[in-house]
Amino acid sequence: MISGRPSANDIIKKYSQKLESQLHIENEKSGEAISGEYEQFLREMKPKLSTYEKWAQTLGNIISIRIAEKDRIKLQKYLDEAHVDVTPSQAMTLSLISMLLIFFGTLFACVAYVLIGFPSIDAFLASRAFADVVLFFFLGVVASLFVFYYTSTLPQRLANSWKLQASSQMVPAILYVVVYMKHTSNLERAIQFASQHLEGPLALDFKKIFYDVEIGRFSTVKQSLENYLLIWRDYAPEFVEAFHLIESSLVEPSDVRRIEILERALEVILDGVYEKMLKYSREIRSPLTNLYMLGIILPTLGLAMLPLASTLLQGIIRWPHVFVLFNIIIPFFVFYMVSQVLLKRPGGYGEGSMLELNPDYKTYASKKPWFFGILIALPFLILGFLPFILQINFITNSLGIENDYTFAQLGLGFLGEGEKVFDFKSVDGRVTGPFGTFAVLLSMFIPLGLAIMFYFVYSEKTKKLIIAREDTKQLEKEFANSLFQLGNRLGDGMPAEMAFGKVASSTQGQKSAEFFSYVSQNIQQGGMTVETAVFDQRRGAIIYFPSALIATSIRILVESSKKGLKIAAQSLMSISQYVKNIEKINERLRDLLAEIVSDMKSNMAFLAPLLAGIVVGLAAMITAILNKLETCLLYTSDAADDLLCVDLGGRRI
Questions:
Q1: Helix, strand, coil percent values for the chain (each to nearest 5)
Q2: pLDDT of residue 454
Q3: Segments of the chain with pLDDT less than 50
Q4: Of 219, 295, 255, whose CA–CA distance to 597 is shortest?
Q5: Rounded to a whole number, what is the distance in angstroms from the first to the last CA of the chain?
Q6: DSSP assignment, residue 5?
């Protein structure tokens, strides 16, 4: 080798580094090349890490836990389906550390309370706080076990949530693919066309089909598609079958037969969604019954039995126990059961919402109603906490009043000469109470004030949006027939720009006429296209009728009209049938759940408030009786002492 001349390896290394810097190619740890477009796809799919990913990656990088191969494969499957950038080891580490943190946190809190509050263990065991600490520790152990279960099964729920969001776009996806392939029999371009017009996770999944081919994971789009369909094999077999029919249409030499197969694929996905939703409507009855019992019947009966149980158990049940049971445990399990029921529902039409486009959405997002709501609730809260406020010496001394008064001092002696209004008592140097009937009545202003605050706030925030939602629901009910008319107009050769005006004039008096009139007005007066007339952010008709179903239907109309009016008419007919199926399913759900929903409404509107009032009355009555008994016992004790003194000849012992 001549001295000073670079070797072949040096030249290759030099220019390969230069080429890599120009093409921005990076290598993964596995050595697999990633293109810049694939990196952009990853940024689109996961614009930012979720809280679960941040915690799992942070803790998983500190501690690594080895799990069984069977569990690792199962967990990795859920993580891949949920598109979560977490390894199975990191997920299990998060679950274990979460459980240990809650367990040891509860243990340290209990030990610290005992060491700080009691001079010795014997004093702690003899006190009433022993039962409270044991209960708190038991709840902490249960909470730690539940957190472990919840976090360890979170990948599965995330995968189900992702599938649910994606499945809501399955019917539009097949519609887009079928609409494109009726005109151009090219599967790759049809999938790309669908990915450009779909929303949510399914659009990203369709893009990933192409990116997997780009990075060399698969050699053809068909292979990548087959691999992707494996995810839906068990969850949505009708989606897989529909795509297989679409693939089979590629080998049909006859255009008539090819279009028949494509229409059959559309029927398969429509019938499949219909059957799944009917099955869900049958299966949801039992979970809703359990939810009804746990969320309404159990708290109502518990409130009814609470005063008697508290009296018979001689004060073992106190307000912390009631607070934890009714305000933490029961609501938590109700929320968990509701989330489980919702995660099992099949995807219908469009989960995405266009509520943000509504001009009144700013009122919903505003914080001003909270300010006025707090001002309205403040007087009620002051009245509710008045017994405690008047126990503050600074306030009473400033106002020149006493901490408590008797009814006789207030001129209400007929309510009890010696009874106090608030009736605080001193027991072993500690002030407890209030036990007065008037204080119980004043306490009712606290929930009343909170209820008025939330009612006012959400009434102001959602008043106009609810009106828009009701109008949208009415439009969706009428939309199937309107789409059928629109499809007939297009089938007769009428341009879409003119068809909207004709349908609006033929549906006068209906909400659908208002929607089509908006579109026709934007087209004629604003010179807009059909797409702009519907989706314009300032004047679009969809602003006043924020419905994902309507938005999807119009998008399919716009795109299919580019392929021809006949294809657009056939697409609208298919959507019309789909909308009718959705309405049938909704009616079926209402019929199956009518009894449970009716019982829930009647109990929440009548029985629960009635029992709550009875409970408050019983609590006040029992408190008054115990006060009377305490006075009688003291009087009887004094009389017995006097009688004993007489028997002993006047000597007092």
A1: 75, 0, 20
A2: 92
A3: 1-3, 8, 11-12, 15-35, 350-352, 639-653
A4: 295
A5: 124
A6: P
